[in-house]
């Protein structure tokens, strides 16, 4: 008996619950100052996002049908964000409203994405509203998330005294334009393919 489906079901359910916890924390305290959001959610978000590194292995091994390069690009960019920016430049990140906007966009997108995968793997029909949310909300969530990530990295770039770190961050900031275009274009094609057939 293959363990592929039970494993993927557990993995995606766990991720859906982890991101839902982050989303509910943001939605239930909208007036919370950025510093409180950071203190409450930064470790939780960092480790939740780190768990997603497994998705690169899933794609590379053929466990999922996700394109390896696209998966790597998104997971790598977010990993750099949570470790090299949000965690390493805590004094800057904790006071920026951009951190909360970023988490808002990430948590909505990923809660829906992982729920969608759970339903698919469980083998039950995907509700139309879930399919629509999965392939439509990115249209405004991606710009919110990407611009917030870019701003936080820009602030870290300006503040660091290390020239090698500054040069690396400038390089990453430059990659946001082609990288964002690639991710957005991929999702637009997926949206057309998925929603155009329903």
Characteristics of this structure?
mainly alpha; transmembrane; single chain; 198 residues; globular
The helical percent reads: over 70%
Number of strands: 0
Percent in strands:
under 5%
Q: What is the helix tally?
A: 9
Task: Return the string of H and E elements.
Answer: HHHHHHHHH
Low-confidence stretches: none
Largest sheet: none
Average residue pLDDT: 95
Shape assignment: globular
Cα-to-Cα separation, first versus last residue: 33 Å
Structural class label: mainly alpha
Number of separate structural domains = 1
Rg of Cα set = 17 Å
General description of the model:
By secondary structure, the chain is an all-alpha fold. The protein contains nine helices and no strands. The chain has one domain (4-195). It is 82% helix and 0% strand. The radius of gyration is 17 Å and the shape is globular.
Produce the secondary structure layout:
Elements: H1 4-27, H2 34-51, H3 54-61, H4 68-87, H5 90-93, H6 97-122, H7 128-134, H8 138-159, H9 163-195
Helix pairs in contact: 1-2, 1-6, 2-4, 2-6, 3-4, 6-7, 6-8, 8-9
């Amino acid at each position: 008996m293959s363990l592929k489906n039970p494993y993927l079901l557990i993995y995606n359910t766990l991720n859906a619950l982890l991101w839902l916890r982050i989303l509910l924390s943001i939605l239930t305290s909208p007036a919370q100052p950025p510093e409180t959001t950071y203190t409450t959610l930064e470790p939780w978000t960092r480790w939740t996002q780190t768990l997603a590194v497994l998705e690169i292995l899933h794609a590379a091994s053929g466990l999922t049908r996700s394109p390896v390069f696209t998966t790597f690009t998104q997971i790598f960019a977010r990993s750099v964000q949570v470790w090299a920016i949000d965690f390493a430049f805590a004094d800057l990140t904790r006071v920026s409203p951009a951190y909360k906007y970023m988490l808002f966009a990430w948590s909505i997108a990923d809660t829906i994405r992982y729920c969608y995968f759970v339903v698919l793997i469980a083998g039950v029909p995907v509700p139309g509203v879930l399919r629509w949310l999965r392939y439509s909300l990115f249209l405004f969530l991606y710009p919110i998330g990407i611009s917030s990530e870019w701003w936080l990295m820009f602030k870290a770039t300006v503040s660091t005294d290390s020239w090698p770190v500054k040069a690396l961050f400038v390089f990453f900031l430059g990659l946001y334009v082609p990288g964002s275009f690639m991710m957005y274009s991929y999702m637009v094609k997926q949206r057309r393919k998925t929603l155009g057939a329903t």
